[in-house]
Amino acid sequence: MVSRVIPVDRFDLVIFGATGDLANRKILPGLFRRFCAGQIPDGSRIIGAARSEMTPEEFRDQTAAAIAEFGGKHSGDEESLKGFLTLLDYVPIDARGEDGWDALKSKVRPEEINAFYFSVAPALFGDLAERLHKRGIAGKDARIVVEKPFGRDLASAKALNATLAAYFDETQIYRIDHYLGKETVQNLMAVRFANILFEPLWNSQFVDHVQITVAETVGVGGRGSYYDKSGAMRDMVQNHLMQLLCLIAMEPPYHFDPDAVRDEKLKVIRALQPVVPADMVRGQYQASKDAPGYVEDAENPDSKTESYIAMKCHIANWRWVNTPFYLRTGKRLRARTSEIAITFKEPPHLIFDEAEGEWRENVLVIRLQPNEGMNLKMMIKEPGPGGMRLVQVPLDMSFAEALGEEADITDAYERLIMDVIRGNQTLFMRGDEVEAAWAWTDPIIEGWEERGDKPQPYDSGSSGPDDALMLMHRDGRRWREIRE
């Protein structure tokens, strides 16, 4: 199967923070891959803007080096690279001053689609929005893309929303969460809403529980000072895991339309019940013989910030009453993996004797990384003579294997940036959605801060704190093994 590539219309994309890590690792290599795929039309422009004083030619050289390292299978395509670099331009700019803005205005063509990517610290969002508006660079149809973190609590998120709303309409603001751009995440919606197979079972009558896991093997080294002010709750749960939970739990929207989808996600967030302390475990990774511990990475020996969190959540609506959602995420764990596992209940009456095999639950596993795909565990008869012996087997669909090597599994940033150019906000967070997520998150954080809770230590390379295991065991369940 060969994926179809639908070109976008011609555009001018300005990347603020174009010399930064995100731009060099993800944004520019992703745009290059879209160019190689034929999705970016001739005449489009990609304009870098940053504090660094450099010429357009120096910016092209820097971009070429980034593509050589992060461009993937197309990185050695010299002809395509040459063509892509002709689209690039650069303007040194002062986000909080006046330098560079006239030069930028002269390069942005108002008759084309205009998009502005804020790949900078959130503290600069307001300054950039104000100058784009007051200088007349961004028109009424322009789009701005803002990266997380979108606030660090409800108050700051509201203030940031208000700042952006002073210069741009909500329809122009694209709050990016790269998890929503993953192929498997979008396939989750297709599996639910394009097939009759699962949706009738997608409720508390048939689903025993849901597990959402995002595990990383790396620590916080290199960004320890930032992370120590954030922690796993703010950095991962409030946005990435919350979005995954919403897509699992949402009602079918009336149409695959940006506001219709986001309306249903918002209902899920507002239906989330408060999490009591007994249903939550926080952890902090310890030093190993090969790597420092969290407090060394954060350079704060008294840190009470969590690098791991596990919790049990409940959604107060008819569809999910009494079905727990278990969320966990952490640094320096056993393997790098992200997955959603929907575990179904056992049949109401088992007709097979124990001697014929141990019954095991049906589980639908959606793998986000690595090896994107889906896996459905089912009970079948073990092949061969000798009676009815049951065995659990996976019906496995790896996208790379099922769709063939020709299938173009795009990076999340590639897809989301192209959606910005198309003006499609379906996979981006709306302002009220962000605020609702913080309204649920804030009391949890305030609670452990008031109690003075300390994270529990856990070994690097493990599955997390022991109490996280007990969070499941006391309910008669167990976490899925963390493995690639």
UniProtKB/TrEMBL annotation:
The active site is at H240 (proton acceptor). Keywords: Carbohydrate metabolism, Glucose metabolism, NADP, Oxidoreductase. Coiled coil: none annotated. Residues 448-470 are annotated as: Disordered. One of its GO terms (biological process) is pentose-phosphate shunt, oxidative branch. Its EC number is 1.1.1.49. It comes from the Bacteria. One of its GO terms (cellular component) is cytosol. It catalyses: D-glucose 6-phosphate + NADP(+) = 6-phospho-D-glucono-1,5-lactone + NADPH + H(+). Residues 189-480 form the Glucose-6-phosphate dehydrogenase C-terminal domain. Pathway: Carbohydrate degradation; pentose phosphate pathway; D-ribulose 5-phosphate from D-glucose 6-phosphate (oxidative stage): step 1/3. GO terms for molecular function: glucose-6-phosphate dehydrogenase activity; NADP binding. Residues 14-187 form the Glucose-6-phosphate dehydrogenase NAD-binding domain. InterPro entries: G6P_DH (IPR001282), G6P_DH_AS (IPR019796), G6P_DH_C (IPR022675), G6P_DH_NAD-bd (IPR022674), NAD(P)-bd_dom_sf (IPR036291). Substrate binds at H178, K182, E216, D235, K331. NADP(+) binds at R51, K148. Belongs to the glucose-6-phosphate dehydrogenase family. Catalyzes the oxidation of glucose 6-phosphate to 6-phosphogluconolactone. This is Glucose-6-phosphate 1-dehydrogenase.
